[in-house]
Specification:
about 210 residues, single chain, about 25% helix, Herpes Virus-1, 10 strands, 2 domains, alpha+beta, two-stranded antiparallel sheet
Length: about 210
């Protein structure tokens, strides 16, 4: 499954993949992955995504720190922490004043980082611009935050008696574009590019039909 949803500028990257503290779509990625609340959400990826840098992840990397050491040395503060999965360096997120995780990736050429937020386990590839989650087998899989968030919102809307299929322009109370979400994946189905697992999840929605 591939994809990413964005808010505001087209160059922003995905902030809080769901399943942890609510649906993914309530946040938008900073360049270091999920970080900050968003406004209007726009789906930007039309093809299934992969990460070509998983072989760069070092399973013997150092344990993450509980601080951003560069911020500490500067006497600065941070918002969230990230760990480079290539070398193990801990840095601060893009919502922090100094963006040390993103800067480290750019300067060192290290492509993949992981959140250190409690209860979260997503990772972000700076090069391929994809969100990943760990698999039970110890690997990583690319996830589609827009799809997963929309599925959550769709269930909420249907469970509360909202109209379905969603009328043109329909949004959730906090602005998630339900109608755009539905049309995106109906379009993929017509084009023959919809992931089979996503198709099955959609068909499980009460009232869904192609």
């Amino acid at each position: 499954m591939g994809g990413m949803w964005l808010g505001h500028a087209a160059n922003d990257t995905p902030s809080d993949p769901p399943g942890r503290r609510g649906p993914r779509a309530r946040m938008s990625h900073g360049s270091d992955g999920p970080d900050r609340p968003i406004g209007p959400i726009v789906y930007r990826r039309a093809v299934q995504a992969t990460c070509g840098h998983l072989n760069r992840i070092d399973p013997e990397r150092p344990a993450p720190l509980g601080v951003c050491p560069t911020c500490v040395a500067m006497g600065s503060e941070w918002v969230h922490l990230r760990q480079c999965l290539v070398c193990g360096q801990t840095g601060c997120c893009d919502s922090s004043p100094n963006r040390h995780a993103s800067n480290h990736s750019a300067e060192a050429g290290h492509e993949v980082m992981q959140t250190l937020e409690e209860g979260e386990d997503w990772a972000w590839c700076f090069v391929d611009q994809v969100t990943m989650e760990p698999t039970p087998q110890g690997g990583w899989e690319v996830v589609d935050p827009f799809f997963e968030a929309g599925l959550w919102y769709a269930h909420e809307a249907i469970d509360t008696g909202g109209p379905f299929p969603f009328p043109a322009g329909a949004t959730a109370d906090d602005g998630f574009p339900l109608a755009v979400w539905e049309s995106t994946y109906r379009g993929r189905h017509r084009a023959g590019t919809l992931d089979p697992d996503q198709a099955a999840a959609l068909e499980a929605l009460p009232g869904w039909s192609w």
